[in-house]
Write a structure and sequence with these properties.
The strands form two sheets. Strands 1, 2, 3, 6, 7 and 8 form a six-stranded parallel beta sheet that branches. The chain has helices at 2-21, 56-66, 77-82, 84-92, 112-130, 148-155, 173-182, 207-222, 230-241, and strands spanning 43-49, 72-75, 96-99, 136-137, 158-159, 164-165, 189-193, 226-227. The protein is built from nine helices and eight strands.
Amino acid sequence: MKVLILVAIAGFALFSIYCYAWSIPTLQLFGPAVVRGPAAGRRIALTFDDGPAPVFTEQVLDVLRERNVKATFFLCGKNVERYPEIARRIKAEGHAIGNHTYSHPFLYFKSRSFMGGEIDRAQNAIEKFTGGRPAIFRPPYGARWLGIYPVLRQRGLTLVNWSDTGYDWKYGKDRIVSETLKHLEPGSIILLHDGLETRPQRPIDQSATVKALPQIIDAARAAGYSFVTVTDFLGEMMNDER
């Protein structure tokens, strides 16, 4: 009996480690994930998840326009349907758009058909209101699961996570700035949020991100960095492989 209990405990521990590993954004063990751009040059990419969401996506866009920065927005299809005019503005102002599923589910233990349905609904919503279908995908929370890679291959989507984050879902402005700049390096893909998936649902407040963003941009430029989109990075990486 003791041996069976020990085996069960060991099995549960291994399974827990296995599940946790799928949630590590930079891990390449189960399949490829773009987490940074080319090391050559001092270029970095700002990315924003979970939008569009008034008024914060609009405020982020205002900051980016004022500072002439192009970024990448990973949009939830449900939010695109709610706020199509903001999605159109993202596209019109020259930013890249990625797929962040339709309803922002945690993908653990989800079937291929479920994941494919979430991705397809988001693709359709984004195409309907912006006129284009994204070529990049970011899973909610950066967490992947079994079957996601065949689903993405069938749809010609590249999985993009991140190498740097300001942890803006839990910190105030100053900490967001310091956390983002602390790990900045050539090729960094930075995770921030213009929306926020909350359970239970409560009002979205990304005001700290909006306040931090000008300081992040100005400090990065002062350190010699320039900004590109994730799709710019991917184009360069494809050219390097040829």
